[in-house]
Amino acid sequence: MPSHLFADRPAPQPPERGTVDALISQTQRLRGDVDAVRRDTVPDATDPQGRWQRALCELAVHQLDDLNTHLGQLRAGAPAGSLHDGGRDARSAPSRPEPQRGSLLSRVGSAEWNLLTDEVTWSGELYAIFGRDQAKQPLTLDELPALVHAEDQPLLTTMVTDCLVDGRPIDGEFRIVRPDGEVRTVHMMGEPVLDANGMTASMWAVLRDVSELRRSQLAVRESQESLQRQQQLAETEHRVAVELQEAVLPPWRGSLRFPHGSPAALDLAAHYLPSSSSALIGGDWYDALQLPDGDALLSVGDLTGHGVTVTSGMAMLLGALRGMAIAGSQPGPLLGHLNQMLDTAVQPALGSAVCCRYDPVHRTLTWAQAGHPAPLLFRGGTGRALTPPDGVLLGATSGAVYEQAEERLEIGDLLLLHTDGLVPGRDGTAGAERLLDLAPRFAGARGAQECVRTVVEEFGQTEREDDACVLVAKIGAP
User: Which residues, listed in sequence order, are joined to residue 132 by a DSSP beta bridge?
Assistant: First the structure.
C-alpha cells in the first residue's frame, strides 16, 4: 500500500529559480518550433496523412502550453489563499486576478474535504470547472456525484471509498455535467490526509479539466486510424493492380520470335517501367501476338490515370484488341472500335495507342495511331519516326475515324514502339529524338533484347512521373 500523507508532513521546497527558468525557455522554443510546423501543415479534408500530422501538432502545442504554465507556477511558488492557508475556501480567500478562460490555470482546481469538521474547501478554479456559482457552498463528497455523469458515478464512488477506507491515492477520470448542460472530462488526483493516530482526517484532490486534451488526443487517434485505413487500401489496390497487370500483359520474358520458319520473322523484346513518383500502377501496356493468318500484331498504349480502375480498363481494351485482331480487323477500324468502347463506358476515360499489323511474307507494316507517339524505325545506323496517319485520342470523340499507313520493311530493320512516359521530362518530339540518338548502339546490338536493355540502361534509372512501356521488334530473327 502506498505511504499515507500525514497532517504534520513538511511542506515541499520549491526548485531553484534558475533551473525552472531554463526549462521554461526550452519549452517556449520548442513550442515555437512545433507551431511553425503546424502552420506549414495545410489543412486538407481529403488528405488523411495531412489531417493526422496537423492533429499531432495541435496536441503537441496543447501539451507544451500546459507544461509552460506548470513551470510558471513552479517559478511563482504557491499562490496566496491556498487550501492549506487556514482552511479558507475560495469565497473567503484574498482576491487575485482571474485566470484567462481556456488557460491551464482555469482548467486546474483543488479541493479539500475535512472529515472531522465537515468543512469543505474549493478553489475558485474548481468552481469555474464545474460551472458552479461561487456564492454557493462547495459540494460535500456525498453531494459531488450529483454533478457527475450518471455512467461515471460508480467510478467516482469507488475511487473516493478506496481513498477514505483503504488509503489508496485517487487517480482517475470522469465526466461532469455542468448546470448549462455541457459535458466536460475531469482528471482527479488526490490522497487521504492522516492524523497522528493514522486515522483519515481529510481528503485533498486536484481536479483538471482535460476535455480539450482528450479531444486533441481523439483527433490524433481518429486521423491516424484514417491514415492507416487509407494506407491499407492503397496497398491492397496496388497489389490487385499489379496482379491484374501481370495477368494481362504478355507472360513472356526475354525475347520472343515469330512466325517460326520465316526469313522475315520478328525478334521481339519488351519492358515495363513503373512510375517512381506513384505507388499506383498505371494503364500502360505492350503486346505482341501471332495471328491465325501468320501476321503479327504489335501494340503499345496508355490509358490515363492510375490504380485498379485504370488497370482493369487497360485489361478490357487489351482483351478487345486481341480479339478483334484475331477476327481479322485491320489497325484503323480496330482503333475505331476501341474508341467506341471507351466513349460508351460507364466510367469514361481517355487513352492513346498505336496498333501495327506486320505481314512477314511481304514485309509490310500496316499501322494506325490514336494520339500516340509514332513508331521509330532504325536502319543502317540511323533512325526516324514514321509519319503518323490521322487519329485522335481514344475516348475523345464519338465516331472517330482512324487512318492507316503502310511501311515496307527490310531484313535487319528495327522497330521501336513506346509510350510517352519512357523519356522523363521530355515532350513527344524531344523524347523521340533522345531515342533516335541510340541508333548507333542499336546497330551493334545482337538482338531485340539487347536493344531493350540499352533503352532501360539509358532511361530506366531516371525519376519518372508516369509509367512507361517499350517494345522492340527486329526484322529477320537470327
Answer: none
Model pTM above 0.85? no
Contact 264, 475 (CB under 8 A): yes
CB 284 within 8 A of CB 270: no
Helix (H, G, I), strand (E, B) or coil at 393: coil
Amino acid, single-letter form, for residue 382: T
Pairing relationship of beta strands 282-290 and 296-306 according to DSSP bridges:
antiparallel
H or E element at residue 114:
strand 108-114
Measured in whole angstroms, the distance separating CA 242 from the mean position of its chain's CA atoms is 20
Q: Are 454 and 416 in contact (CB under 8 A)?
A: no
The grid coordinates of residue 226 equal: 484514417
User: At 10, is the secondary structure helix, strand, or coil?
Assistant: coil
- Distance set, CA 8 to CA 11, 13, 218, 308 (Å): 9, 15, 42, 73
Three cell numbers, residue 447: 538482338
Q: Identify the residue whose cell numbers are 482528471.
A: 187
Cβ atoms of 298 and 323 within 8 Å: the answer is no
Look up residue 110 and give its three cell numbers.
483543488
The DSSP H or E segment spanning 317 is: helix 308-326
Phi, psi (rounded to 5 degrees) for 376: -105, 130
Rounded to an integer, what distance in angstroms lies between the CA atom of residue 471 and that of residue 435? 13
How many whole angstroms separate alpha carbon 188 and alpha carbon 176?
12
Each residue's pLDDT tens digit, 196-253: 888 889 999 989 898 988 888 888 888 888 888 888 887 777 677 667 667 667 766 5
| pLDDT tens-digit series, residues 388-446 | 999 999 999 999 999 999 999 999 999 999 998 787 666 667 888 999 999 999 998 98
Backbone phi, psi, residue 220, to 5°: -65, -45
